Amino acid sequence: MENEALLEKFEQLIKEQGYQELRVYLDDQLITDIAELIHELPEQAGIIINNLSIGRAAAAFRILEFHVQEDVIRELPAAKVAELLNELPADDRTSFLGELHSDVVKELIKLLNPEERKITLSLLGYNETSVGRIMTPDYIAVREEWSVKQVLDFIREYGKDSETIDVIYVVDEKGKLIDDFRIREFLLVATDTMVHTLMDDRFVALHVNDEQEEAIQIFRMENRVALPVVDDEGILLGIVTIDDMLWIANEEHTEDIQKIGGTEALDEPYLDIPLLKLVKKRIGWLVILFIGEMLTATAMAFFEGEIAKAVVLALFVPLIISSGGNSGSQASTLIIQAMALGEITLTDWWRVMRREIISGLLLGGVLGIIGFIRIVFWNSLFHSYGEHSILVGLTVGISLIGVVLWGTLSGSMLPLILKRLGADPATSSAPFVATLVDVTGLLIYFSVAFALMKGTLL
Hints:
458 residues; mainly alpha; MgtE N-terminal fold; CBS-domain; Tetracycline Repressor, domain 2; 3 domains; 3-stranded mixed β-sheet; 6 strands; MgtE_N_sf; Magnesium transporter MgtE; membrane
């Protein structure tokens, strides 16, 4: 831990049972240092949160990992839990409750005051991956007939309860969003200026049912710290802030990386997840990939006669299938990342295919030439491949072109196909693509060998 003084002082005060001094001391620390202290002493998480003022306790709680939050809630007395849940911003509270079992949620909901309960139940009613699930109803909304002075007075009175005052929203008498302003636009004009004279009717809003991943792209393109959320009628329901988007983006990135690696997404840190649960997360894909690799043995058995006549062909099987798998994994990773960043969409499939055909031919050509040269050169020194080394080299070289081309096409098209079918593109993981290309690569290799060597080695 970087702040060793905090750790030592905490342990000293706990040992001396100096809880009054502990409360004062902890409240003077940075929230990030408090979170680091909890990470260092997870068994003391409940004590740490319980000895913070409620505002700072909520600030620390909201940035903890979910499994730590669960432990804290279990350890805190009911009165403190109620105080903490009511203090949390609505979006953070909803995010936490959304991860819990329904029976636990029912009990915790009872601890909320009527207003916060109504807000939380409303947010929990939205789809888990929708923007509505992470929006907050705490924002500043003003009317177009107000003056700038009225707006500033309103911000002074109610701004402390808002998630952010960087952006101010203008609504009509029905609550429909009609414009938004950055706070500086009010600060830099005369106080008697009317709001409607500043309006340009240009604003960007999220729909309450939009997917969170789509919202990430909009935040990135618009470079905003907050965006309004509206319903089908354009009524302003809440806002989503950049801190929530960064959290979601990190979770999505982590989940995609884990899926690309051929495992289910982990919902806990690696060292904290129970071993049997970790095995369960990994075994599914391993079994699928293992069964898929069995087809490789089936393919080799089909060409058993050719291998018996030309044993030299078997020497290059690992080379062929690994090259195809590697090229497929490369393409799959690149396309999944490009889709995640919004660089390509389903409508770009032909452009992607065209680029990957050219890339596959060039990459395969380079590997094919290297493979051919290596076989011919090695045979000239050690006579390892017999009198038909040129033919063997051509077989390997041409096969590499075909296998690498097929690998790039498979790796690039599978994510797009899965996206079109409504599945997560990340599930076309590198291991899955590699397994597919292994099997088909053998078919390509032995088909080329049979075509080129018929009448000589075969």
